[in-house]
């Protein structure tokens, strides 16, 4: 069975959520930026949602997600937080909006600090490269 029907049913429940995985193509940054919240099995979807300060939750659909999840752990460790994945076996397992909002832990201040730190690092890198 394709995951597309499952995504459609879940999307109907949550209204503005976008679901992302390697099986769904064509989701744009604009669509993410216009969303109220994001449920995603894609790290890139979660990172973009955080950059736009859109509440999000990491999800997976299979018995055992591919990989160890270390890339997710690494990403969230930069914010000093843990973000366990939420398994969705059926539409009934979809977290409610309030749960997603209440469990979202990346604040505006955290994102702003990360953006400034990244800008500073890139700026230093470019300066050092120009000197050589």
Describe this structure in words.
The structure is a single chain. With 132 residues, the protein is an alpha/beta fold. The chain is built from six helices and four strands, in the order αβαβαβαβαα. Strands 1-2-3-4 form a four-stranded parallel β-sheet, with helices on one face. The model has no long low-confidence stretch (mean pLDDT 80).
Q: Would you list the SSEs in sequence order as H and E?
A: HEHEHEHEHH
Question: If strands are numbered along the chain, what order do they take across the biggest sheet?
Answer: 1-2-3-4
* Total individual domains: 1
How would you characterize the largest beta sheet?
A: 4 strands, parallel
Kindly state the percentage of residues in helix: 40-55%
Described by the principal axes of the CA atoms, the overall outline is elongated
Distance between the first and last residues' Cα: 56 Å
Percentage beta strand = 5-15%
Structure keywords:
6 helices; alpha/beta; four-stranded parallel β-sheet; single chain; elongated
Briefly characterize the structure:
The protein is 48% helix and 10% strand. The protein is α/β, with parallel strands linked by helices and 132 residues long.
SSE order and pairing:
Elements: H1 4-14, E1 18-20, H2 29-33, E2 38-40, H3 43-51, E3 56-60, H4 70-77, E4 86-87, H5 97-102, H6 108-131
Parallel strand pairs: 1-2, 2-3, 3-4
